[in-house]
Amino acid sequence: RIAGADHQPVVDVAWIIDRSVDAAVAAQLREAATTVGAERDKNQATLDAAPFPMWRRDAGMALIWCNAAYAQAVGSTPDRIIADQRELLAGPQGGRGIAQRAVAGKAAISEPRHVVIAGARRRVQITETPVPGGELVGIARDITEVEEAQTTLARHMAAHGEVLESMASAIAIYAA
After folding, report:
1. CA-CA to 47 of 20 to 30 Å: which in 19, 81, 120, 140?
2. pTM, whole model, 2 decimals?
3. Residue 120 to residues 3, 69, 106, 124, 151: CA-CA distances in angstroms?
4. Paired sense of beta strands 2-3 and 9-11, if any
């Protein structure tokens, strides 16, 4: 019974709760949460198995997730990286700078950069990609071997040119 200001009954209220439905719904919610948690753990394990650094940023460019390869490259744990906002590439032209250009252009941006990973200077191709919801996904692909091969090829071509230029005999090179 609910009383008004004059303490006279205004309305009668009966509240009936079917606890069996609540228990069933609660059980379904627990089961769904367990399934979602297991699926999240599988996805995390899959992304941690990737041999290259991966990360996510929120709309404000803050790091909100990284995989195990990123953590290894930075030399920390994912939780510490997120808490400290440790970038793979520091500085204004680093990761955040690339991410900002990707957001401004509304398209993926890829740029090669040098970075020190495990004490070794590596050349990586950094890609920042805007995704729905205002977030960004980033990856760093190691292209050190490509850079070394290009440097070696340029050195060999220069050496061949020097040999040809230093010969006393006349030389002609013909195409097919």
Report:
1. 120
2. 0.69
3. 78, 15, 33, 12, 18
4. antiparallel
Neighbours of 73 (CB within 10 A): 22
Q: Identify whether the C-beta of residue 77 lies closer than 8 Å to the C-beta of residue 94.
A: no
With beta carbons less than 8 A apart as the criterion, state whether 153 and 137 touch: no
Tens of pLDDT, residue by residue over 23-80, are 777 788 888 888 888 888 898 889 999 999 999 999 999 999 999 999 999 999 999 9
Q: What is the pLDDT of residues 138-168, one digit of tens each?
A: 999 999 887 777 778 878 888 887 877 788 7
- Show the DSSP H helices in the chain as ranges: 19-48, 68-74, 78-84, 95-105, 144-166
Length of the chain: 176
Residue type, 170: A
